[in-house]
């Protein structure tokens, strides 16, 4: 009987330790957007103004320089489980007006998926659709496409469906068919971009 009690205690202990280990593994997910080593040395490209950042902000690296942007979040018109997101930079003030200058648009972000792949395919059903463009308010100036050969991702750190509060990270490379050096290079990399909205 004594051996049976010892065996039961050992089994309970092993079971408890295995459950604790599983719980610990579940709470420490591997991030999909981490800090990168910057190797690009080009200079002279535009860093747009960050805007008022009234509802949210984004901070990160554009090519090899710090950049900031204002953040806007929208409910997706086609699904309650999806949201859309925009990061906007602005031209310098002109007669009291800050015209939109830089726009990164994310469409069809799944509210509950932590690590999401990016695509430029508008028909995609399993990836976030992203575009990057240089504009002057509503007038398009230069359109970039996502570099599908690069390491691109959007990571949802947290999202509250009740308040629309969002914390996320982003990395992505974009290529244009044209370039206007040195201001607007042909390839633009955004890395280690931290995004907050609604706080």
How would you describe what is shown here?
By secondary structure, the chain is mostly beta strands. The protein has one domain. Helices cover 13% and strands 45% of the residues. The chain is built from one helix and eleven strands, in the order H-E-E-E-E-E-E-E-E-E-E-E. The chain has an eight-stranded antiparallel β-barrel. The radius of gyration is 22 Å and the shape is globular. The N and C termini lie far apart (61 Å). About 4% of the residues have low confidence.
Helicity level = 10-25%
Class inferred from helices and paired strands? mainly beta
Distance between the termini: 61 Å
Beta content comes to over 45%
Q: Main β-sheet: number of strands, strand sense, barrel status?
A: 8 strands, antiparallel, barrel
Mean pLDDT: 89
Low-confidence stretches are: 20-26
Tertiary shape: globular
What is the rounded Rg?
Answer: 22 Å
Treating each run of at least 4 consecutive H or I residues as one helix, how many helices?
Answer: 1
Number of strands: 11
**Quaternary status:** single chain
SSE run? HEEEEEEEEEEE
Number of domains: 1
Query: Reading side by side through the largest sheet, how are the strands ordered?
Result: 1-2-3-4-7-8-10-11
């Amino acid at each position: 009987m004594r051996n049976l009690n010892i065996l039961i205690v050992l089994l309970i202990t092993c079971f408890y330790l295995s459950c604790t280990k599983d719980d610990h593994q579940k709470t420490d997910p591997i991030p999909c957007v981490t800090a990168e080593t910057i190797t690009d040395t080009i200079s002279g490209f535009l860093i747009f103004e960050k805007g008022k950042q009234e509802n949210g902000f984004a901070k990160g690296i554009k090519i090899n320089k710090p950049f900031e942007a204002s953040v806007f979040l929208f409910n997706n018109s086609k699904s309650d489980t999806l949201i859309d997101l925009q990061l906007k930079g602005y031209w310098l003030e002109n007669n009291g007006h800050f015209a939109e200058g830089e726009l990164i648009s994310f469409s069809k972000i799944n509210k509950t998926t932590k690590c999401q792949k990016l695509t430029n395919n508008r028909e995609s059903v399993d990836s976030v659709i992203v575009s990057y463009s240089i504009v002057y308010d509503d007038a398009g100036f230069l359109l970039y496409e996502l570099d599908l050969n690069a390491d691109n991702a959007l990571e949802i750190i947290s999202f509250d469906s009740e308040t629309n509060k969002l914390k996320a990270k982003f990395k992505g490379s974009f290529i244009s068919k044209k370039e206007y050096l040195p201001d607007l290079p042909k390839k633009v990399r955004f890395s280690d971009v931290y995004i907050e909205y609604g706080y």
